[in-house]
Specification:
Blueprint lengths: L7 H4 L1 H33 L4 H15 L3 H16 L5 H27 L2 H9 L4 H31 L11 H12 L2 H31 L1
Helix pairs in contact: 2-3, 2-5, 2-8, 3-5, 4-5, 5-7, 6-7, 7-9, 8-9
Length: about 220
């Protein structure tokens, strides 16, 4: 049915690799920022101050009720109007991913903190550690170890979601492949290649998550 020509892939490897580097960069920065902000939100949600709990809960419920593509549009089009100057596609998309993913990471981290036995915190306080020191040195390390597989699973989802940046014209791996496909009229070849690449990365990462789950369980 098709006269497929996959020679366009090595012929455009530099362009495709530049797009993949953008995808990796965006994914890595969004994971780091999302975990940091998510940890802060999780600590607010378990705080004994009702106001802080309600603020963090409202943030999490708000972003978890929105589609990611809408958040990207908001940050890309509205933020320049608010600050009065262009922000740039990469910056706006990165902020959108961090804000959005933080809502999901916060719930994962909160569950991880709650999975640590209360006696751990009590013992840390008994030897003279402050609440902050106990959380940082005793509770959070145990919580992150237990929830590492879930955090990595969310990272896989984020890697897939980075393909949404095409809506603002940011040249990631998918957009780079689309440019080649449209220019050379090789849509089938390029999008088959894109599917294989995403499947390979996500499948290998999923296998790694399963390995970690078994290792932690034992």
């Amino acid at each position: 049915m098709f006269d497929l020509d996959f020679s366009i892939i090595p012929a455009n490897k530099e362009l495709l690799w530049e797009g993949m580097k953008m995808t990796f960069l965006l994914t890595g920065l969004a994971i780091g920022g999302g975990i940091i902000l998510g940890t802060f939100l999780a600590l607010l949600r378990i705080a004994k101050v009702p106001v802080l709990q309600h603020v963090a809960s409202a943030y999490v419920n708000f972003f978890r009720s929105l589609p990611l593509i809408l958040v990207i549009f908001w940050l890309f089009f509205l933020v320049p109007l608010i600050v009065g100057r262009p922000v740039g596609a990469f910056s706006s998309v990165l902020v959108a991913f961090i804000l959005f993913e933080a809502a999901y990471y916060s719930e994962i981290i909160r569950a991880g903190i709650n999975s640590v036995r209360p006696g751990q915190l009590a013992a840390a306080r008994a030897i003279g550690l402050t609440y902050g020191q106990a959380m940082r040195s005793v509770v959070l390390p145990q919580a992150f170890r237990a929830m590492t597989p879930i955090l990595l699973t969310q990272a896989i989802i984020l890697f897939q979601d980075t393909s949404l940046v095409y809506v603002v014209g940011l040249r990631d791996f998918l957009v780079s492949a689309e440019i080649v496909a449209n220019r050379d009229q090789k849509l089938v070849e390029m999008f088959l290649f894109v599917a294989v690449v995403y499947f390979t990365f996500c499948f290998l990462a999923s296998m790694g998550v399963r390995y970690l789950q078994r290792k932690i369980a034992t």
